[in-house]
Amino acid sequence: MVNQKYLAMLDNKSVIRELSEYATARGKEIGYENVFDFSLGNPSVPAPDSYRDISVRLLQEEEPLKLHGYNPTMGDPRVKKMVAESLNKRFDMAYEAGHIFPTSGAAGAIAHALRCVTEPGEEVMVFAPFFSEYGPYIEGTGAKMRIVPIKEDDFQINFDAADGIFNEKTAAVLINTPNNPSGAVYTEETLTRLAEVLTEKSARYGHTIFLISDEPYREIMFDGKKQAYPAKFYPHTLTCYSFSKSLSVPGERVGYVAVSPDCEQADKMVAMMGQISRGLGHNCPSSLPMLAAAYCIEDTSDLSVYETNMNLLYDTFKELGFTVPRPGGTFYIMPKALEDDATAFCQKALKYDLVFVPGDGFHAPGFFRVAYCVDTEKVERSLAAIRRFVEAEYPDR
What we know:
Blueprint: H1 4-9, H2 15-30, E1 36-37, H3 49-61, H4 64-68, H5 77-91, E2 100-103, H6 105-117, E3 123-127, H7 134-139, E4 144-148, H8 159-163, E5 170-176, H9 188-205, E6 210-214, E7 237-242, E8 255-259, H10 266-280, H11 287-295, H12 304-319, E9 332-333, H13 342-350, E10 354-355, E11 357-358, E12 368-371, H14 376-393
Parallel strand pairs: 1-10, 3-4, 3-5, 5-6, 6-7
Antiparallel strand pairs: 2-8, 7-8, 9-12, 11-12
Helix pairs in contact: 3-11, 5-11, 6-10, 12-14
C-alpha cells in the first residue's frame, strides 16, 4: 500500500503554488507582463558577477576529481572554515569550522537542526506569522508544532500569548527574522526579551530550550540597518542560513547550520547532523555551488531593488487606507485586507490581474502577503491596478 499520509497531502496543495500556476496560465492568455504576480518569493535580481567568475575559475583550475568527488559527511573543511571566519568577523562570534554543517539550503538546515534538539512527542514553538512549510518540517521529526498568535501592530513576538504555551514538553523555539511573510525584523529589544524568557523557562522545566533561528533574508535589510544576530543574545542557538537570497541562487540549494560555540553539546551537534543525514538521505550541497558561495561569502546581489519596490507598495497601500506595518527587510509586505475574509479579498483582486496570497496559510487571518521580488517597472505599473481594484471593490473603505 502506498503511504497514506503523503497521498492525503495531495489534496492540501500549497496556495502559493496554486496562485503562481494561475498567474502563469493567465499570462499565456494576456501576456505575463500584464499579470501582476506577487505570489512566489523567488529572487528577481541576478547573482553577482563574482559568483559566476568564481564558478568558472573553479571549473578551469580545480582538480576535476577533487571538485566533483564526494564531500566529507560533515562538509568541505574549506567551506566550513570560511563560513566560521565570516560569521566571527561580522557578528563577533567564536565559531570554529567544527561548528558549521553545510546543508541543502535553509530547508535542509532546519531539518537537521530540528532533529538535533527534539525527540518525538516534544514541542516546537513558532510565532505567527510564519512560513507555512514549518508545519511539515516540524511534524516530520515526530514533534508537535505549537503556534503563538500574531501580534498585529508590528509582527514582533507576542510574548503575553507565548507565556501560556510554554510547558515541560517545549524543546525548541523556531524564529524567522527578517520574516517571511511579514517583512518584520526582530529588534534587539525583542531578542533580548526572548533570550530572557528562554533562560527562565529552561530553568523552570529543568532542560535547555533551544533556539533555531532561520535567517535566509538576513542581508535584505532596509533603511541602512542590519539584522541583530540572534545567537549573540542566547547561547543555545542553532542558526540556519541559505545563500539563495543574498546571492540570488535559490536553485543551487546551498546553506548551513551554525551551532553557537556556547550551545549545549556544541562539540557534538555537527557530528550528530552527519548521522541525521544518513536517515534523511542528505549528504552536503553539491561541491561546485557550495565552494563558489563560500569564496564570495560576503558578496551580495544588488538587493537595493527590494527596498525600492517596498517603498512604492507601502506608500500606495497607506494612501489607500490599508493597515500595514512597514517591513524592515525581505521582499514581502503584509497589509491587512479591506474585509475580514482575506481569501475573498484576494479572489476579488484576481479580476484586476493582481495575484496576492491570503494570510491564512501563514496563520495571519485577515492579512495578505505581497511578494515584490519583481521588476520595479512592473511594480510601478501595478500601482494603478491596485488603485482601480480598491476603488471599485471597496468604495466605502
